[in-house]
Amino acid sequence: MDFAFDARTEELRERLLAFLTEHVYPAEAVAQEQRAALDSPWQTPPVVDELKAQARRQGLWNLFLPDERYGAGLGNLQYAPLAELTGRSPQLAPTALNCAAPDTGNMEVLAQFGDEQQRKQWLEPLLAGEIRSAFAMTEPEVASSDATNITTRIERDGDSYVITGRKWYISGAMNPDCRIFIVMGKTDPGHADIRRQQSMVLVPRDAPGLTVRRAMRVYGYEDHYHGGHAEVVFDGVRVPVGNLVGEEGGGFAIAQARLGPGRIHHCMRLIGMAERAIELMCRRAVSRTAFGKPLAGQGVVQEWIADARVAVEQLRLLVLKTAWLMDTVGNKGAHTEIQAIKIATPRTVADILDRAVQLHGAGGVSQDFPLAELWAAARTLRLADGPDEVHQRSLARRELRAYR
Ligand SMILES: Cc1cc2nc3c(=O)[nH]c(=O)nc-3n(C[C@H](O)[C@H](O)[C@H](O)COP(=O)(O)OP(=O)(O)OC[C@H]3O[C@@H](n4cnc5c(N)ncnc54)[C@H](O)[C@@H]3O)c2cc1C
């Protein structure tokens, strides 16, 4: 068994490490200051655009896209250690490299299912990092973890589709640079196959009838760096029929295809977040003294650090195995493992971050350390892209099948 990455991955890793140290970490405080001085907290701080230009010049750009026509042409196993590094600075690094959700999933959808006109109009500026995008599926009125429940209507009217519905937690939509929404709704609510009722359409931000109503919070955070999570109303929004993505009735299948890579990307970045938490824990443990000895001398602290290290190594191996399966047998063949990492990673990393918060005392819950916000992000991923229980249910069913 060979645990080494190939030469190209190693070389990119070295370059990315240097980029993070030289440019991204120092920009964290700058971005915070700049954001405070902007007219609106949803605008992109100028330092982020500088980071993007730097990353692009250095070839650290669109690394997530395996299709060489559009991106770096890396497999999942090659991208995994790079995405992990970006998780060390989750608020800046993924955006700097044009590898941030939800744009990544949206670019994949457009590359895979968009027609030539759609790719020209929306994929090209997304690939160039000139605009941002959002994916609108979840609705406040229905249990949206079951996507067959969604009620938004996409009705054909001559050469147009008319969209009516209300969505929430639409990531990225508060940022004015978010110019395009991929919206999932029902074109045929009466279809006998409940997975053929849905379609996806492209809706430009400035379409009449589209209102970005408010920013939803995540444990009290507004997540400015991710462009927030908005409530969005579509009130009779009219778009040309050419804005349909793929075919009518194909929305459910596209949503499924979109989530496989998205889930593994989140898990890769979460491991980077856990590594940052361990680093902060160790630094704090050796630098603070209580009751006559450094915190690092307390058995309980040593246990937290050891358990965190073991858990991260276990998670990384499972994520890498999943990445390898996705590359070799495809996303469908890696379905069980994708579910396993989506169940295991957010909750384990949230636990590690919780211990890191504890070790930092009041500082841990403060804005002076990234831990509280990272914890909220990790905890949230037990809901986003499908709650734990939905993945557990499906994984258990598969496991039980052999015994029935
Ligand atoms: C920060 C954040 C960002 C998000 N970004 C986006 C986005 O960009 N676009 C978008 O469309 N959506 C987004 N979402 C929404 C997210 O995908 C949904 O919250 C998720 O799919 C769950 O849907 P729901 O909130 O309607 O919960 P529900 O479907 O109402 O489920 C509630 C709970 O019921 C339980 N449950 C449900 N099904 C089962 C089952 N089969 N077995 C056992 N228990 C079950 C689970 O505990 C679940 O948490 C985001 C959410 C968050 C928090």
Automatic annotation (TrEMBL):
<dbReference type="Pfam" id="PF00441">
    <property type="entry name" value="Acyl-CoA_dh_1"/>
</dbReference>
<dbReference type="GO" id="GO:0050660">
    <property type="term" value="F:flavin adenine dinucleotide binding"/>
</dbReference>
<dbReference type="InterPro" id="IPR006091">
    <property type="entry name" value="Acyl-CoA_Oxase/DH_mid-dom"/>
</dbReference>
<dbReference type="InterPro" id="IPR009075">
    <property type="entry name" value="AcylCo_DH/oxidase_C"/>
</dbReference>
<dbReference type="GO" id="GO:0005737">
    <property type="term" value="C:cytoplasm"/>
</dbReference>
<feature type="domain" description="Acyl-CoA oxidase/dehydrogenase middle">
    <location>
        <begin position="134"/>
        <end position="236"/>
    </location>
</feature>
<dbReference type="Pfam" id="PF02771">
    <property type="entry name" value="Acyl-CoA_dh_N"/>
</dbReference>
<feature type="domain" description="Acyl-CoA dehydrogenase/oxidase N-terminal">
    <location>
        <begin position="9"/>
        <end position="130"/>
    </location>
</feature>
<feature type="domain" description="Acyl-CoA dehydrogenase/oxidase C-terminal">
    <location>
        <begin position="249"/>
        <end position="398"/>
    </location>
</feature>
<keyword id="KW-0560">Oxidoreductase</keyword>
<keyword id="KW-0274">FAD</keyword>
<dbReference type="GO" id="GO:0003995">
    <property type="term" value="F:acyl-CoA dehydrogenase activity"/>
</dbReference>
<comment type="subunit">
    <text>Homodimer.</text>
</comment>
<keyword id="KW-0285">Flavoprotein</keyword>
<comment type="similarity">
    <text>Belongs to the acyl-CoA dehydrogenase family.</text>
</comment>
<dbReference type="InterPro" id="IPR036250">
    <property type="entry name" value="AcylCo_DH-like_C"/>
</dbReference>
<dbReference type="Pfam" id="PF02770">
    <property type="entry name" value="Acyl-CoA_dh_M"/>
</dbReference>
<protein>
    <submittedName>
        <fullName>Acyl-CoA dehydrogenase</fullName>
    </submittedName>
</protein>
<dbReference type="InterPro" id="IPR046373">
    <property type="entry name" value="Acyl-CoA_Oxase/DH_mid-dom_sf"/>
</dbReference>
<dbReference type="InterPro" id="IPR013786">
    <property type="entry name" value="AcylCoA_DH/ox_N"/>
</dbReference>
<dbReference type="InterPro" id="IPR037069">
    <property type="entry name" value="AcylCoA_DH/ox_N_sf"/>
</dbReference>
<dbReference type="GO" id="GO:0033539">
    <property type="term" value="P:fatty acid beta-oxidation using acyl-CoA dehydrogenase"/>
</dbReference>
<dbReference type="InterPro" id="IPR009100">
    <property type="entry name" value="AcylCoA_DH/oxidase_NM_dom_sf"/>
</dbReference>
<dbReference type="InterPro" id="IPR050741">
    <property type="entry name" value="Acyl-CoA_dehydrogenase"/>
</dbReference>
